[in-house]
């Protein structure tokens, strides 16, 4: 009976942001292949003493696949540990295909992606009623070309929340794209370096006009999330449009209105019988 290869999202950096499922699998693993120094800590902290732990940093995809297939022949639980969530920028499918071809069973365990850890670090909400209800996870073009229609300039025209991965050394491209899409010079921006890493997290707040200079001054050139959103800084705003779900005048499945209808919040959500936000 071959073992199973579990692709586990290690989360953004803080080992305590691993899921319980991920931690339990690491604790049962006979072998762990982790992606670079980012997830080293979680791999070594929770792995059993006899577990074989290897860094994939210097391996090709073929070598990684061969390593996992070989270990799955000897161990019931083999873990491939990846940063954040395995479904984002993680070469997941490239590794899954050779495992499928070799008949090795596999499962994926999600992880906290760095965009969410960045929102948490900064106490920001990526959605706010009537401002934006949409989040785009993307990157700018580096060595990986962007498919047609996905240039940041095109995506930014939605004026929704943009979480931009893998682009901190390309901030000039981010700025140019936002300008071309009509974002104002004073549009708030946020860069989070090493979100959730104990003692190493850095928040840089600025505007489209000055975020690059602020990042340069702070020496931030790697492992950073760039966020542009009309919701940034809402914690300080005196006036917010409230979510209808918690509005005293709004009745839904779980609560009766305790106040008369408020004209600014009388519109019903798409499905008035159930909460539209959790
Ligand atoms: N699968 C990962 C993303 C891997 S791509 C995830 O879900 O988060 C690597 C990029 O993720 C980095 O260039 C950076 O933009 C972002 N990133 C990863 N960890 C981060 C962290 N702790 N803080 C900020 N950004 C991070």
UniProtKB/TrEMBL annotation:
Belongs to the precorrin methyltransferase family. Pfam families: TP_methylase (PF00590). One of its GO terms (biological process) is methylation. NCBIfam families: cobM_cbiF. Pathway: Cofactor biosynthesis; adenosylcobalamin biosynthesis. It comes from Roseateles rivi. Its EC number is 2.1.1.133. Keywords: Cobalamin biosynthesis, Methyltransferase, S-adenosyl-L-methionine, Transferase. GO terms for molecular function: precorrin-4 C11-methyltransferase activity. This is Precorrin-4 C(11)-methyltransferase. Residues 255-278 are annotated as: Disordered. InterPro entries: 4pyrrol_Mease, 4pyrrol_Methylase_sf, 4pyrrole_Mease_sub1, 4pyrrole_Mease_sub2, Cbl_synth_CobM/CibF, Siro_Cobalamin_biosynth, Uropor_MeTrfase_CS. Residues 4-211 form the Tetrapyrrole methylase domain. The gene is cobM. Signal peptide: none annotated.
């Amino acid at each position: 009976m071959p073992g199973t290869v579990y692709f586990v999202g290690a989360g953004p950096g803080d080992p305590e942001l691993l899921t319980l499922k991920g931690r339990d699998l690491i604790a049962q693993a006979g072998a762990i292949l982790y992606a670079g120094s980012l997830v080293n800590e979680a791999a070594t902290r929770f792995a059993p003493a006899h577990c074989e732990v290897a860094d994939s940093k210097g391996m090709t995809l073929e070598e990684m696949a061969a390593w996992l297939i070989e270990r799955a022949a000897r161990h019931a639980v083999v873990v491939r540990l990846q940063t954040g969530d395995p479904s984002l920028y993680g070469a997941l499918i490239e590794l899954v295909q050779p495992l499928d071809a070799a008949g090795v069973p596999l499962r994926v365990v999600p992880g906290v992606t760095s965009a969410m850890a960045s929102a948490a670090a900064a106490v920001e909400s990526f959605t706010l009623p009537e401002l934006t209800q949409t989040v785009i996870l993307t990157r700018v073009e580096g060595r990986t070309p962007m498919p047609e229609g996905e240039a940041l300039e095109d995506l930014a025209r939605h004026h929704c929340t943009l979480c931009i991965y893998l682009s901190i050394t390309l901030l000039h491209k981010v700025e140019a794209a936002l300008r071309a899409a009509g974002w104002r010079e004073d549009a708030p921006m946020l860069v989070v370096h090493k979100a959730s890493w104990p003692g190493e997290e850095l928040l840089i707040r600025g505007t489209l006009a000055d975020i690059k200079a602020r990042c340069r001054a702070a020496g931030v050139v790697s492992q950073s999330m760039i966020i542009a959103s009309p919701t940034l800084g809402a914690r300080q705003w005196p006036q917010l449009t409230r979510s209808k779900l918690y509005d005293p005048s709004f009745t839904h499945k779980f609560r009766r209105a305790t106040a008369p209808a408020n004209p600014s919040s009388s519109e019903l959500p798409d499905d008035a019988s159930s909460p539209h936000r959790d």
